[in-house]
Design goal:
mainly alpha, about 60% helix
Length: about 80
């Protein structure tokens, strides 16, 4: 039996760890209740339509390779 989208959403919400229940703010905003100004700004932000340059693609590829190779440092260490 196929589950409905609403049933799947209930499953996903139920599977969220308590520490991630901040998703509630986003859902409340979607249904028109209290809306956090940051969530509103993100929902209304224009889509990034700037083309990605070859230089940026190379940097992304290099960064992803560094992540795969474990050549990263935690943010608190960098700070």
């Amino acid at each position: 039996m196929l589950e409905t989208a609403r049933e799947r959403l209930h499953e996903l919400v139920d599977a969220l760890p308590e520490s991630e229940v901040e998703v509630k703010r986003f859902l409340e905003c979607l249904v028109g209740k209290e809306c956090d100004p940051l969530v509103t700004a993100l929902l209304n932000a224009p889509e990034d339509d700037e083309p990605v340059t070859l230089e940026e693609l190379k940097a992304i590829e290099e960064a992803e390779n560094d992540i795969r190779q474990g050549r990263t440092r935690p943010l608190d260490e960098v700070m």
